[in-house]
Every structure is written in structure tokens, then in C-alpha cells.
Amino acid sequence: MNRTRALGKGLGALIPQLEEADLQNTLEVPVEKIEINPYQPRRSFDRESLTELSESIKIHGVLQPLLVRKSADHYQLIAGERRLRASKLAGLDTVPVVIKDLDDRAVMEIALVENLQREDLNPIEEAEAYKKLIEEFKLTQEEVAKSVGKSRSSITNTLRLLNLPTEIQQLVLNETITMGHARALLGLDLPEKQIHLSKKIIEENLSVRDTEELIRLMNISDVPRETLEGEKKKEVVYPRLPTLDPNLQAIVDDMTRLFGTKVRIKNSGKRGKIEIEYYSQEELERITEILLSL
Fold first, then answer.
1. What was the pLDDT predicted at 15?
2. Which string of b and e fits 87-111 if b means at least 16 CB within 10 Å?
């Protein structure tokens, strides 16, 4: 599915409409009079891509106006920080802008959607932006999902990344490990285990699937907490236990992906049980919705 079209259900469709509808009202504004958006979820910008954009701007100019709002005798950026930074690199004194009167919530939502459309956000940056929308503007996860044109389960799963230790969040921010690794690490119950395994992922270049399998085995064997602390942490021997029947393991894998949480099957002959973990009332409701929709 095209990412921009999917986002079109929320504010993803708003950015081009705002700019296209007002092109005749575009103004040239000095770059020093434009303040950075305080709600910008993106922490870093790739220097190489900014340089490439600045070279293009030197030749063709800024083809798409920036979106701003008035702020005293200045302007506050709503969308287009990458273009603004590249324009400064290109040595431009002014840039074209469209002025809109928007409140803080709309400014934050548009900044978030702009980055999501361009796939510019790191998963941790995305999670932090959702959290800020929820806490600052008192939104529910359902309301955030509608605002950005995503499913509620996607919002919930992204927010869960913030439950990981700060050290692991930083690894995701630095792209040392992937979002897939981070989501897998949520399957461990102790921060010490999560941190210890994150180091093993890096040292041994484990794939996401290898990580998921190792976590499954660790949960079965229950690696004791004390072996992950102090000097003893070097003594940890990761389990290599018999695996679940391949057919049942395939079902576990499918259900884990479907529900975005830890799933266990306990089998004893013809009988058994399925356990689906949840970590909040909201997550229980999300899982229930998925089950009822099947």
C-alpha cells in the first residue's frame, strides 16, 4: 500500500491541500525570521541529503513553499524544516511561505504527518511524538490513530517501544538495531535481560528471527535475573532447548505478528492452551477488537 495514500485518511491529505490552495498567496520571507517548529518530532537530519537538496535549490530555487504561522514579529515553521535548512546551506536570504492560522495541536499533527509521509522518522521519534500528542493534548490512542491515518494497533505497538530501557531506545535511534529487534526485546520481562540480549544482537549480528527464537527459548528456560547482573553477566549461557513442533511454532509466529505481543502455546497431546499477553487495559481492548474482527 502506498504510504501517502494510507495517511490520506487523516491529516496526511491536509498538507498538500493547504499549500496548493494558497499558492497565489505565497510570500517571500527572510530565513532569519522563521523559527523552528517546537513540535518537530525529528531529532536529526542527514547532512548528505541536505547538501544534495541545497545544491538543487541553488539551481532551481525552493519549488514547494514552506508552511508557517505568524508568531509576533516572526514566523513559526509548521512544515518544511528540511527545505529551510537546505535553503540556509544554499545561502538564500528569503524563502517562499504560505501563512496559516493553526493551533498547537494542528501544528504538531501536521509536522508528524509530514515526516511519516516521507518516512523520515525513526521509530523512537515516532513513538515520542504519539506520546506527546496523547499527554499534551489529552488524546486517546484511537484519536491519534485517526489524526495520522494509522490503525490503533500500529499506534499501540509503536508506543510500546518507549517501555524499553533508555539504552535500547538509543540503539534504535542510532540505527544500531532495528525496530524489529526492539519489538522482539519487548518479549523479555526484565530490563536487565533486554539490555543483555541487545548487546548479543550487536556482537553476533543476530537477525530479528534469530532474536525472536532466542527470546522464546529464554522465556522457556527462565534465565535467572542474578546471572544478568554484576560480574556474573559474562557467565550467561543462552539456552538451546528443543523447539516447539514446527506447525505449532508457525501458529505462534503468525499470532505474535497479528497481535503485536507475546503469544505462547502450551501443548499436551490433544489438549493445550493459548496465552496472549497484554500490558494495559487499552492493549487488552485492542487485542479483543482484533479477535472479534476475525
1. 52
2. bbbbebeebbbbbbebeeebbbbbb
